[in-house]
Amino acid sequence: MSASDDAFRAEARAWLKANAPDFRFEDNLSEDELIARSLAWQARKAEAGYGLVTAPPELGGRNGSGRMAAIFAQEEARFAPPTFLGLNIAFNMALPSIKRHGTPEQYRRFAKPTIGGRATWCQLFSEPSAGSDLAGLRTRAVREGDHWVVNGQKVWSTFAHRADYGILLARTDPAAPKHQGLTYFVVDMKSPGVEVRPIRQINGKSEFNATFLTDVVVPDANRIGEAGEGWTCALTVLMNERNGSGQRQPVAYDRVRNMIDRARSARRGGGVALDSTAVRARLAQWWVEEQGLRHFAQRVRAAAARGERPPAAVAMLKLVAAAKKQQSNAFLMDVDEYEGLFPDAGHPEREAIFDQYLWAAAQRIAGGTDEILRNQLAERVLEMPSEPRMDRGPFNTLPGGT
């Protein structure tokens, strides 16, 4: 750690101590309150040059290094800031992909309102027939002069009903092989023809949506990268999504110490839950996983600070963190001997734990299912033989590829 890094950490810590407490996240915030607080916090950071540390000052940053951005993120996490997913999508997926594959003008145009807390984003990738097999998507974009006309349906569009922009993957050349006929766009979610329908979830909320696109006009100026390069752009998005999801878990759900305390106080027969060998073994396993996540996340952040793309092994972050979140919340319900089948108005902490347990099931699907991630780790990291593929050739010659 250099002297300049130490100085920046001290500066960031002092600023956060003076500003962050006013915006602290609370479990009982409504959706409107969470979004308002998150955007206000983002705007406050941008005013001070912390909106996106690596961005230029005119966009709300300070032309800082990747290492400085990592330092600020570490310090910010200590204050439990509000975390609206529409901003996480912006900073973990949308802006990095636009910066890497788009033009400087495109990046400035979309980054300025986002960093300034005036725009939120959603992801328009998955479809009813293209989830794990994303490249099998059927949403079409047809070029007409200086714009494209988009028709199709997307699903599991998180917070699309509150988004200003969406990152869209659409098929522009059905005669090309399925991975090569895709193009990446930014869609104004207020455009005519965009219809967002909430999906009722098991936890009673409607954060996911089905999004219908009917003759939606997208300017060619909103095409990111060349036509047909959408899959390359999508890989950048997915890698950053898994990286961001995995790195958030150890911070947001760092509960091993709390679980140990809970097991130490929960009565069982003539003793406490922590007396159980099985309970101690589970806690020890989660402790090991948590430390592994932390150290691997630090390696990934260091690589990013050097300008490197996230490695294929980054899938481990998301794979391990999502499973740990679901299992640990189930443990917390079990050790206190309540099922959590219904919200308990008298115990808001129990409500929050049960809600996170249900939400974790979705996280094991979003950004790649556990099974898909294991396949990718086997093939791309361990270099095991690939599974046989029957979907080669032009997309429009494949079953259902109309």
Distance between the termini: 56 Å
The rough form would be described as globular
Query: What share of residues is helical?
Result: 40-55%
What's the number of extended β-strand segments? 10
Q: In CATH's first tier, which class of the largest domain applies?
A: Mainly Alpha
The overall number of domains is: 3
Task: Predict the CATH topology of the largest domain.
Answer: Butyryl-CoA Dehydrogenase, subunit A, domain 3
**CATH-derived architecture of the largest domain:** Up-down Bundle
**What is the name of the CATH superfamily of the largest domain?**
Butyryl-CoA Dehydrogenase, subunit A, domain 3
Radius of gyration, in angstroms, nearest whole number: 22 Å
The side-by-side strand order for the widest beta sheet comes to 1-4-5-8
Question: What is the N-to-C order of secondary-structure elements (H for helix, E for strand)?
Answer: HHHHHEEEEEEEEHHEEHHHH
Describe this structure in words.
This protein is an alpha+beta fold. The chain folds into three domains: 3-83; 123-230, Butyryl-CoA Dehydrogenase, subunit A, domain 2; 232-381, Butyryl-CoA Dehydrogenase, subunit A, domain 3 (Up-down Bundle). Helix content is 46%, strand content 13%. It is built from eleven helices and ten strands. The protein has a four-stranded mixed β-sheet. Strands 2-3-7-6 form a four-stranded antiparallel β-sheet, with no helix packed on it. A hairpin with a 2-residue loop joins β9 and β10 (271-272). α6 (230-252) runs parallel beside α9. Residues 246-253 have low confidence and may be disordered.
